[in-house]
Amino acid sequence: MNEVEAVKNRDTIKLISYLLERHFGQQMADVWNIGLNLALRISDLLAIKFSDIDGDRLSIIEQKTGKRASIKLNPKTLALIEAIHQRHPEHIYLFQSHRSSQAKDRQAPAKPLTRRAVAKAFAFVGDDIKLALGTHSMRKTRGYHLYQACKDIGRVMRMLRHQSEAVTLRYIGITQQQIDKDFVELEI
Predict the structure, then answer these.
(1) The Tyr recombinase domain covers which part of the protein (predicted)?
(2) pTM given for the model
(3) What angle do CA 77, 163, 67 make, to 5 degrees?
(4) Phi, psi of 154 (to 5 degrees)
(5) CA 51, CA 112: separation in Å to the nearest integer?
C-alpha cells in the first residue's frame, strides 16, 4: 500500500471535490467533503448512519479503537448531510451504496459504500492531478490544516485521537525540515 498525502493547497482540495463529482458523481464528492470535516478513518466514515446524528452532533464508536467519538458538526457538514438526507430520505447510511438500494427489491439489507470503491475513485483523481490520494487523505488533510492554523500538535493529536505527538506529526506530513523552518521564521 502506498503512503498517501495530506492535501496542503486549498485550491487542490476544491479541485479534488470537483473531479470526484465529475467522474464519480455527487456521492463521492460528498464523501470527500464530509470526510475532510470529520477527520474519521474511512471505515468509521462509511459506517455512519443517519441515526448516529443528533442535531449538530455525530456520535459513533470507532471501529479501530472501540472508543466513543462525539463530534460537533460544523455548518458546512450539516448542510451536506441535510442535502443527502433530502435526496435519499429512505437511506439508513449517510453514504449508502446505490447497489444496496437496487437490491431492495430482493429484501437485501442496506449497505454503505465500500472502502474499495472510495479508494478506487480517490486513486483515479490522484493520478489525474499527480498526488498520492487515498482514503486517509481526508483525515490527514484536516489534521494538516488544523496544525497550520494553530501550531498546536496536542490539539491536532486530540482531534485525530492519536496516542503520541510523533505519530500525529508523521501522519499529517510535518517533517523536521518544516519544524526547523518554523523555528527560523518565528523570532521573538
Answers:
(1) 2-184
(2) 0.87
(3) 55
(4) -65, -40
(5) 14
Query: Residue 50: what residue type?
Result: F
pLDDT in tens, 140-159: 999 999 999 998 999 999 99
Residue 79's Cβ-side half-sphere holds a number of Cα atoms within 13 Å equal to 4
Q: Which domains does the chain have, with CATH numbers?
A: 10-185 (1.10.443.10)
Instruction: In whole angstroms, give the CA distance from residue 162 to residue 165.
Output: 8
Half-sphere exposure at residue 21, Cβ-oriented, CA atoms within 13 angstroms:
10
Average pLDDT of 55-78? 94
Within 8 A by CB and 6+ apart from 80, the residues are 30, 33, 34
Q: Which residue type does 44 have?
A: D
- In angstroms, rounded to a whole number, what is the distance separating the alpha carbons of residues 6 and 148? 12
